């Protein structure tokens, strides 16, 4: 069955890629009270900004962002068509698929128009509904939207205006004219439902970007919104099975991620590690947003989708691999900077990530950073030990 397959380990000593479920140690005390930066209020989303270039065609892509389609896009059409057919067949008989085949094809990328069908299967939203039925005594998305008043609705609606500010679906000018676009109202409803389904987490900044990225899934030129209930159940699954809840409930839990990433940077990028320490640049200052939004604000939207669907299949290691890959692309320029202010400003900027080739980034992420689940577990245990 699908549930069994997706949760089985892929037994490879060098590169295990099973879903890694970590139970956070709520008893450990943080080093200090970590306050998550309000990156939304002042955020200028550089990833999806307009860039003029003679060799590129400026247009709004199917997700609502300004983008450029170059000639390579058309050369890849034949490969894409073959991939579409393979995914159609696999989706139709998903329960019978081998986890290794799912992993391999997910790494190559899911065609845009089929993500709406593949993501619920990869996330196993059926299992999410079973969990909700046990805890909340319901498995219906609509049941979480029956209240007349919602505790977090005001903040959620404020944050809609701050979500991907250069995306036409969330721009303030459009919202003022049309009150609410279809996508923005979907964003509000899904976030309201999630805050009711997981009341001890409620609503936290950063969730709006991840949720918006999910509901922007489309099919070619014809906008095809991921059904609200499916976006909701994918998010619910992320919170309950992939253990993302802790990041939003208590920002101090991010110290664990900082600790693990710091050790991995020392191993794979020792030069960057020395620069960060020399200039007293703490990972908190520039990676908090990466972890809170799962890179949805740092990477071009299509690349984010590639990373996200790999994360659905392979779990937590994907987050650290992606962070290390970003460090890789920033390292050379970082070496040239010689002070805290310039170094931090560059690390927090996403401008140099605008034109990343998705295939090259994914190949680098998966081939250069080959560490096992055991590595993450060992670093996790060291972190816990240090907190005692």
Automatic annotation (TrEMBL):
Entries under Pfam families matching the protein: RabGAP-TBC (PF00566)
Taxonomic placement? Eukaryota, Sar, Alveolata, Ciliophora, Intramacronucleata
Coiled-coil residue spans: none
Keywords from UniProt, A to Z, are: Coiled coil, GTPase activation
Top-level taxon: Eukaryota
Which species does the entry assign this protein to? Paramecium tetraurelia
Any one Gene Ontology MF annotation carried by this entry is:
GTPase activator activity
The UniProt entry, under PANTHER family, shows: GTPASE ACTIVATING PROTEIN AND CENTROSOME-ASSOCIATED, ISOFORM B, RAB GTPASE-ACTIVATING PROTEIN 1-LIKE
- SMART domains from the entry? TBC
Please name the SUPFAM superfamilies in this protein's record.
Ypt/Rab-GAP domain of gyp1p
- Where is the Rab-GAP TBC domain positioned along the sequence? 109-315
The protein, known as: Rab-GAP TBC domain-containing protein
Do you know which PROSITE patterns this protein is assigned to? TBC_RABGAP (PS50086)
């Amino acid at each position: 069955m699908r549930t069994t397959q997706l949760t089985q380990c892929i037994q490879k000593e060098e590169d295990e890629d099973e879903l890694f479920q970590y139970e956070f140690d709520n008893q450990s005390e943080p080093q200090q009270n970590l306050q998550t930066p309000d990156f939304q209020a002042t955020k200028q989303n550089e990833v999806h900004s307009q860039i003029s270039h003679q060799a590129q065609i400026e247009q709004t892509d199917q997700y609502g962002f300004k983008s450029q389609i170059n000639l390579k896009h058309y050369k890849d059409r034949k490969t894409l068509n073959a991939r579409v057919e393979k995914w159609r067949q696999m989706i139709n008989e998903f329960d019978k698929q081998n986890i290794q085949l799912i992993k391999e094809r997910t790494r190559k990328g899911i065609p845009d128009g089929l993500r709406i069908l593949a993501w619920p299967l990869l996330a196993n939203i059926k299992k999410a509904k079973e969990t909700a039925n046990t805890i909340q005594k319901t498995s219906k998305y609509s049941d979480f939207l029956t209240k007349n008043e919602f505790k977090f609705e005001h903040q959620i609606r404020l944050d809609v205006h701050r979500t991907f500010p250069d995306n036409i679906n969330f721009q303030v000018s459009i919202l003022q004219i049309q009150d609410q676009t279809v996508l923005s109202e979907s964003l509000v409803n899904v976030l309201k439902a999630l805050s009711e389904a997981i009341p001890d987490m409620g609503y936290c900044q950063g969730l709006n970007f991840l949720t918006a990225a999910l509901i922007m899934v489309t099919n070619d030129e014809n906008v095809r919104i991921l059904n609200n209930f499916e976006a909701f159940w994918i998010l619910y699954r992320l919170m309950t099975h992939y253990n993302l809840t802790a990041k939003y409930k208590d920002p101090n839990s991010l110290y664990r991620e900082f600790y693990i990433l710091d050790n991995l940077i020392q191993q794979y990028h020792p030069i960057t590690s020395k620069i960060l320490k020399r200039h007293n640049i703490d990972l908190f200052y520039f990676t908090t947003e990466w972890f809170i939004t799962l890179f949805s604000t740092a990477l071009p939207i299509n690349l984010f989708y590639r990373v996200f669907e790999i994360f659905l299949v392979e779990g937590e290691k994907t987050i650290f691999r992606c962070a290390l890959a970003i460090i890789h692309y920033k390292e050379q320029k970082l070496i040239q900077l010689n002070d805290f202010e310039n170094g931090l400003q560059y690390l927090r900027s996403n401008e140099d990530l605008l034109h990343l080739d998705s295939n090259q980034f994914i190949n680098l992420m998966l081939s250069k950073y080959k560490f096992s689940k055991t590595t993450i577990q060992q670093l996790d245990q060291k972190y816990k030990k240090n907190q005692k």
